[in-house]
């Protein structure tokens, strides 16, 4: 094995570990968001009950509850937005991983001597290239979606 192959393998392992750690962090954050959603739901239900029971409380108290309720809705929308971003990132990480594996597979076919390739090798190389292009296109689509999302938020 050449030094460049070892370097490529090491970089691939490092990139894989980096994606793995990022995916774990995202998973933890998604779980936290889920818990916060439930807490906000419960608080919202309490406030709605208090507001429905309006004849028992003064107007300024009702205004305060209404404002709290609006704040909860805002917070929930913000969390939903973050969750959506994280889901896109998870998809990106999966595609990145697939792309790396397909790159490696394609490189192994391309490094073979042309005269030694069987028709099956040529077919597999072609299929790998098609899969790789599909993954690259999916990643580009995700980048486009994120950009559209970012622009609509501005």
Automatic annotation (TrEMBL):
- Record keyword Cytoplasm present: no
Per its UniProt entry, which superkingdom is the organism in?
Eukaryota
Q: Which PROSITE patterns match?
A: BMERB
Q: Which residues form a coiled coil?
A: 23-50
Under the heading InterPro entries, the entry gives:
bMERB_dom, F-actin_Monoox_Mical
One of the entry's Gene Ontology molecular-function terms is: monooxygenase activity
**Location of this chain's protein in the cell:** Membrane
Q: Which UniProt keywords apply?
A: Coiled coil, Membrane, Monooxygenase, Oxidoreductase
Q: Where does the protein principally reside?
A: membrane
Q: Where is the BMERB domain?
A: 13-154
Please state what the protein is called: MICA1 monooxygenase
* Gene label: Mical1
